[in-house]
Specification:
This protein is of the alpha+beta class. 28% of the residues lie in helices and 38% in strands. Helix 1 packs across helix 7. It is rod-shaped and about 120 Å long.
C-alpha cells in the first residue's frame, strides 16, 4: 500500500484548490471557489443529504473510473490445465491465454455497471498421440455496483463471477469428427475455470484496495485504514445515499477544514470614511483597520454549524476643530452552516452581520477625545460600517463555495 490514500486512475483528490483571488492557497483542506461559480445568489436551491449523496456517487462513479477499478486484471496471463477429458480420460487439453482490457458495456439503475472483460486463448488438445491447436475467445461479464458504506466510503462491489457469466467462442473450422466430441466438455470446463481465476484476480488484496474510496482520507491526504482492511476483509456497514450525504457533512466538513477557509479573512483591510457626523455635520470620522485572525468553534452537527468570531482592530480619528484619536477592538459574531446546493456544491453559508451581535471596546487617546460628547453616535455609525464591510467580504464568497463536481472531474 502507498503511504497516503491516493487512488491511481480512479476517484482521486477533491480537496486541492487553486490559489484564490488574493493569492492564498489552502494546505490540504476544502477547495476554494471556482471563478465561474455564482456566489451572489442567496436564494440558491439547497439539497438534502440524500440528493447530495446520490449526485456525489453518480457523478464520481463514471464509466472511466469503473473500468479503472478493474483495469489491474488486464494483461494478466491465464493457464488452464493440463486436464483430462473424454472417455476414460483418453484425451487432454491445455488452455493458455491473456485477459484483455475491461470495457463498460451497459449502465443500469442505482449506479450499476455491466463490464465485459475479454480474454483470448490458445487450446492445445491431445488425443491418441495427435495434437490439435484451436483459438478461443471468452467474454467475462461482471456487474460492478457503486455502494456507499460507513463512515464515508464509496465501494465498487463486484459479485462473484459464475460459469454462466463466461461466454466461450471456439474457432473450430474443419475439425475432424474424431475431435468434435471433445468440444462440448471443453466448452463446459473452460468457463468454470475462467470464472474461478477471474475471481481470484479480483480478490487480490491490492486489487480490492483500489475499489475502496475513503472520501475523508482523500480530503485529508491520509492513509485509509478502511482501504487497507479491504484487502483481507471485504465486509462493510452499507448505507444509503442519505446516510452517506449526512456523514460527508459531519465527518468531512470539520472545524479545522472550515477554519482554513475563514482564516483567509485575516489581514483584510477595513477602511471607513471620511464620514460627516454630529451637530450640523461638524465632525469628520475616518477609520482605518484590519481583520485579525478569526476564531471558530463547532456549534452543532445537526446541521453542521459553527460559531465564527471575526476580531477587527480599528484606529479611529474624529476631527472636530482638531483630531481626536481612538483605538477600537471590535468582534463580529456570525453563524456558519455547511449546506449542499444544486447542482453539486458544498456551501459554507454565512449569516449576515447583525449590528446587535457586534461588540466594540473603545479607548480614547487623551482627555479631550475621552470627553467628546458625540461618541455614542460615532460608535453606532462605526459598528454599522464595519457590519457593511464584513458583509461585503463574506458575500464575495472566496473559498466558501466548493464545486464538488469540478473537483471530482479533475481526478482522472
Amino acid at each position: 500500500m502507498q503511504p497516503t490514500d491516493e487512488p491511481s486512475g480512479a476517484l482521486a483528490r477533491i480537496e486541492r484548490a487553486a490559489p484564490d483571488s488574493r493569492g492564498a492557497s489552502p494546505s490540504g483542506d476544502l477547495p476554494a471557489v471556482r471563478p465561474e461559480v455564482d456566489v451572489s445568489d442567496t436564494e440558491r436551491p439547497w439539497l438534502d443529504y440524500a440528493e447530495f449523496g446520490e449526485r456525489f456517487v453518480t457523478h464520481a462513479v463514471t464509466a472511466a473510473r469503473i473500468e479503472a477499478a478493474v483495469a489491474g486484471i488486464a494483461g494478466r496471463g491465464m493457464t488452464i490445465g493440463p486436464l483430462s477429458i473424454g472417455p476414460a480420460g483418453l484425451a487432454g487439453f491445455v488452455a493458455e491465454g491473456k485477459v484483455g482490457k475491461p470495457v463498460v458495456s451497459h449502465h443500469g439503475p442505482g449506479v450499476n455497471h455491466a463490464v465485459t472483460v475479454p480474454a483470448t486463448f490458445t487450446l492445445k488438445l491431445l488425443l491418441g498421440g495427435k495434437k490439435l491447436r484451436l483459438q478461443a475467445r471468452a467474454e467475462i461479464n461482471l456487474t460492478l455496483r457503486a455502494r456507499t458504506a460507513e463512515p464515508v466510503l464509496i465501494v465498487i462491489d463486484i459479485p462473484p463471477v459464475a460459469a454462466e457469466d463466461v461466454s466461450l467462442f471456439l474457432r473450430a473450422q474443419a475439425v475432424e469428427s474424431a475431435w468434435e466430441f471433445l468440444l462440448d466438455p471443453i466448452a463446459g470446463i473452460v468457463p468454470r475455470e475462467v470464472a474461478a481465476r477471474v475471481n481470484a484476480m479480483l480478490a487480490d488484496p491490492h486489487a480490492r484496495g483500489k475499489r475502496v474510496f475513503d472520501i475523508d482520507a482523500i480530503v485529508g491526504r491520509d492513509r485509509s485504514p478502511h482501504r487497507e482492511r479491504a484487502g483481507f476483509d471485504w465486509s462493510f456497514d452499507w448505507t444509503d445515499y442519505g446516510r452517506f450525504g449526512h456523514r460527508f457533512f459531519t465527518e468531512v466538513v470539520t472545524r479545522d477544514r472550515v477554519f482554513e477557509v475563514v482564516e483567509r479573512l485575516a489581514g483584510r483591510p477595513i477602511e471607513v470614511g471620511p464620514l460627516r457626523t454630529g451637530p450640523r455635520k461638524s465632525a469628520t470620522v475616518t477609520v482605518h483597520g484590519a481583520v485579525r485572525v478569526p476564531s471558530l468553534t463547532e456549534k452543532s452537527r445537526e446541521p453542521t454549524t459553527f460559531d465564527l468570531v471575526i476580531p477587527v482592530g480599528l484606529d479611529i480619528t474624529v476631527d472636530v476643530l482638531k483630531a481626536n484619536r481612538y483605538r477600537a477592538d471590535v468582534e463580529v459574531h456570525l453563524t456558519l452552516t455547511a449546506r449542499a446546493a444544486d447542482p453539486l456544491l458544498l456551501v459554507i453559508d454565512v449569516s449576515s452581520p447583525d449590528p446587535e451581535r457586534i461588540s466594540m471596546e473603545f479607548k480614547a487617546h487623551g482627555m479631550r477625545a475621552a470627553t467628546l460628547g458625540m461618541l455614542a453616535g460615532i460608535k453606532k455609525q462605526v459598528i454599522a460600517q464595519v457590519a457593511k464591510v464584513i458583509g461585503k467580504e463574506i458575500a464575495a464568497g472566496s473559498g466558501r463555495i466548493i464545486d464538488v463536481a469540478a473537483r471530482i472531474d479533475k481526478a482522472v
